Amino acid sequence: MLKRLSPMLVVAQVVAMLLAFTPMAFAATETSHSYSNQAIYGNLSVSGTTSLTGALTLGTPLAGSNVTNAARRFRITVPLSPVTGAAADSTTYRALIPVGRACTVTGVSFVAQVPPVGGTDTLKALKGGSSGNTMLNAASINATALVANTTTNATLTSTAADLAIPATTPIYLEYAQGSAGTDAIGVFGSVEVQVTDY
């Protein structure tokens, strides 16, 4: 025979069940919590640094449409001079970067520990190879304009096709030192790309 429960007891049990599934809220001063086997429904906003150990299962698959452009970007930095010692006069230092994914170049930067002084010293960023189209707003940058230990962000071309890199096309960076009075030391080129093949 079934026993009839009072309405107040039923309400108390339902409230207790709801409280057991209430989303967690923390005071702004709390900094560290550890939980296991948590289920989160709806939106989750996390500020600061969060770490995750174990598996993450997503109810909604993570897809390209869910990923912002900033999350699709990464930077590749390569040396454009000897790793140790100074660059030699009348020498061209090259780097070919195989990105391996369809992407758009969103930034090109150069830096030198010691910039060259004197001579005709140039920096280039080209699509595909040494004879490719420039990705800069000019054919090259004057390397003597670099400031020691300061990143120079180059101005990119306004031709979108020259910044669109197919998966099989490399990016070419070059530093050519002329007859410098002061030889360059520690020249690096860096390319920021945004993956587009999602």
Can you put this structure into words, describing what you see?
The chain is mainly beta. It has a domain at 72-195: Jelly Rolls (Sandwich). 7% of the residues lie in helices and 28% in strands. The chain has one helix and nine strands. The chain has one helix at 7-20, and strands at residues 73-79, 91-97, 103-114, 122-127, 141-142, 152-153, 164-165, 171-177, 185-195. The strands form two sheets. Strands 1, 3, 6, 7 and 9 form a five-stranded antiparallel beta sheet that branches. The chain has a four-stranded antiparallel beta sheet with strand order 2-8-4-5, with no helix packed on it. The longest helix has 14 residues, at 7-20. The protein is elongated.
Observed structural traits:
mainly beta; five-stranded antiparallel β-sheet; four-stranded antiparallel β-sheet
Low-pLDDT regions: none
Overall geometric form: elongated
What percent of residues adopt helix (DSSP H or I)?
Answer: under 10%
CATH class of the domain at 72-195: Mainly Beta
**Proportion of beta-strand residues:** 25-35%
| Total beta-strand segments | 9
- The CATH architecture of the domain at 72-195 comes to Sandwich
| Overall average pLDDT | 82
Query: What name does the CATH topology of the domain at 72-195 carry?
Result: Jelly Rolls
* Structural class determined from secondary elements: mainly beta
Number of helical elements: 1
- End-to-end gap: 62 Å
Largest pleated sheet: 5 strands, antiparallel
Radius of gyration: 28 Å
Helix-strand pattern: HEEEEEEEEE
